[in-house]
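Database export, one record per block. Field names are fixed; values are copied verbatim from the stored entry.
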Amino acid sequence: MNILLLSMPDSFEHMPTVAIRMPNAALTSLAGNIDAHHRVAVADLILAQARVRQTVERLVREMDPYILGLSVMTFQRKTAKKIIDLVRSLSPNVRVVVGGYDPSLAPEAYADSSWGGVDFIVRGEGEITFRELLRALDTQSGYDRIAGLSYRIGDRFCHNPDRPISNLADGEIRLPNRDARVLRGYTTLGRQADVIETSRGCTFDCSFCSIIEMRGRNFHTYPLDRVIADIRDAHNHGARTIFIVDDNIMLNVRRFEALCRAIIDAGLHTIDYTVQAMTSVIANHGEQLAPLMRRAGFRYVFLGIENILDEDLAFLRASSKNTRREDGRKAGNAAIAAIDSLHRNKIYIIGGLIIGNPTDTRASLEANLEFARTHVDWPFIQHPTPYPRTPMTREFRRQGLIVNERLEEYDGTTAVVQSSHLSADEIEFVRWQADRWVKLRHLPVAFAHSPLFVLRHAPQMLAHLFRGSSLKSLLGLEDSRRAFARYRAIRQAEREYL
């Protein structure tokens, strides 16, 4: 059968498509784990933001899909519904399958009568569930024994038991199928980009995390030879920069060190790698780990700083993973030690911070922003966002602090909750005002890394960074809140893809 798999065009503020266009790892993994007689196409609509309707229409015309599969995050739900409605108008008999974080954690939203276009919901890890669903459709057998599947019967949905988490080591989940991609243009600063995965899961219990709610507290790893084969496949498909998408690769430090050595031994250290990391691991093991990472080709680390204030870390349940230790005893926040280790080895920091928590004041916001100005190369400053079923969501609802229920604005950089001291608008304004200038300081680094790309695209990069600003506002001759209002209007218009 013909299968069309789509990821949504909605993008994060911190990842402007002029500079960063990353593929969806889940869709190529799904494509690699279905039976070979199917014809499958993967389309990341982030590559077609200005022509979503035309692209979907063309793909439906060319593929004539029997199955339409969509990977959806919460802030993409509205767009997903529009795409389903569009495809239904073009191909009324198509069977629609949704999966990803949002359908997994809020299946009731997709089973609602307003979502009449959805036939199946794949909850949790999708590779095996989707494969079994396709086999059931092939043989016209029932769906009741497919773990992790929800399916429509008439005007109601049946929800099968959850699928057990895969241990990843048994080889049941095969390598991604990158040949299934039908759009081109995955880049980071002009270099062809791809994503790979070496492990899944996390054993911490951060209150903001959807991963724990979807799969529980656990950690499973692929064999390193399988990881190296995945990297080599991405490289053979043209990738010169790779983002490792693991939830928490640093849980096993010795394994990560072995991965770095395996990359070097395989001659794949000429690729630029970006990885997510905990501050505590880098702080406690940085002397040995950071030089090895540099030799293996790691150029950027997304560092989960979360917040520099103890009270906020406690609310986020992120204290233990951000604590430095000396002789087995706690020795304060790990962020500065981690950053120093990485900077000494010429590795740049993407600093993940969350501001706007329940007790935050203007002073606590400024403390985190000043930390970003001083220590972080590229800020990834977000607002706490009440995603389905997370502990954070329950706490914000208990305190009555959620002020915005428009899910399309749950993108991390739109403040949808207030604190006990500040309105959501004030929190977002403070972040926006500082964020642009911290990012601007990284432009020389980007130029050193990719000079031709920056020379060619600097006007677009600056235009994105300072959306809403005018010469008057930049010179202080206009109230910056007017520029902020223009920025928010632009951001609102950007969310309309169809």
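Remark 1: The two ends are 27 Å apart (CA to CA).
Remark 2: DSSP finds 19 helices and 19 strands in the chain.
End of record.
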